[in-house]
Amino acid sequence: MTALSLIMLAGTPVLAQADRPAATPAPQTAAAATSAEPGLRGATAIVNGAIITGTDIDQRLAIVLAANDSELAPAEQAQLRNQIQSNLIDEMLQIQEANAADVAVSDAEVEATYNRVSQQNFNMPSDRLDAYLATIGSSPQSMKQQIRGELSWQRLLRRNIAPFINVSADEVQERLDRLQADKGTEEYRLGEIFLSANSENSAQVRERALQIAQQLQQGGSFVAYARQYSEASSAAVGGDLGWVRLGALPPELATSASQMQTGQLLGPIELAGGYSLMYLIDKRQVLVADPRDAVLSLKQISISFPAGAKQQDATARASRFAEGVQDLGGCDRAEQGAAALGAQIVSNEGVRVRDLPAPLQEAMLSLPIGGVSPPFGSIEEGVRVLMVCGRSDPAASSGPSAEQLMAQIEDERVNKRAQTYLRDLRRDAIIEYN
């Protein structure tokens, strides 16, 4: 095996939980805007007397740009600013409605959610997230305001919509029966960015969707763009629709999804009322165990190269290593064999196959106990292999319970009515643009 056969792996998943997009600072009144402190830009919109400033938009834009691998052209940034302003208006309306309905979100709730987001989405404590946001031109206050908007909206939906959603036992049973009938068929975990359109602005919205698709293809974070652009209720969770079957999707989306491969982006897809961009996060078979849910016991065997190592020398050593690991004689003798090769060895327990980089998943599933993966790595990072020392295969899924299905149907109906609710808030608001 030559160095050309080494698998070069990128450590970052295509759809990681990207940096949570920032939010606006606490609303100001129009009067306060006239006495803004130095450096604070003036109002770009006034929503029922509360202002949105250029600084608010800049701080939200900074998060999106930080999550984008490529630099956006000035025209694209201008379009993004317009969309962010629209999002901030909706956010302001949601907070105002929660205040008027006496279900306002407390500062303590916002702070607790911010701390949780810092750990789950950024993998850092909140004080480090504060510093990170400052370095990219955003702020903790901006992100906390978006959190306040999301929590306010969720609370409004629970109070004003959810209690009036009724799902019968017959509906749940019908879906359970359909699920059993679909056993073995594929279901899809999809991400969606939905942009609403009408006959007057359809061409402009489609052009905007094409620009978003291009930015995503160039390395933009789908989660970040979904949170900023999507007008569907799934925007709050980065556009994630969860696991769905084709029959539950609009025909236009179902046809497209059936042809997609994991990691693929499609769109814009024209729907009644707008355009969708779809991202296939994953797919599996209904009520069938997924081999990628197998849990492995692994030994990682690796070699490193000294600083300044020549390509020729590294290639020769990598080839000897690749040959030597095939003769280790199984997991019981791995330590002794690794020492003879001048390699290091680390044990890893409880590793799910689906958590491994995509290029390795199929290779690991095909290996017997004691089998060794193809080498992967580089001169800078070192070269390593994985040896399978144990495997726990997943059990077949029994599917969701009746209670889970009822909750799913309720969520679908709440989300549909939420779009109408927000549309009514926009219609009744007094919004002035500068």
TrEMBL record:
UniProt entry tagged with the keyword Chaperone: yes
Domain (PpiC) ranges: 185-282
Molecular function per GO: isomerase activity
Entry-linked Pfam families: Rotamase, SurA_N
Signal peptide: 1-18
Keywords of the record: Chaperone, Isomerase, Periplasm, Rotamase, Signal
Listed InterPro entries: OMP_Chaperone_SurA, PPIase_dom_sf, PPIase_PpiC, SurA_N, Trigger_fact/SurA_dom_sf
Record's protein name: Parvulin-like PPIase
Organism from which the protein derives: Croceicoccus esteveae
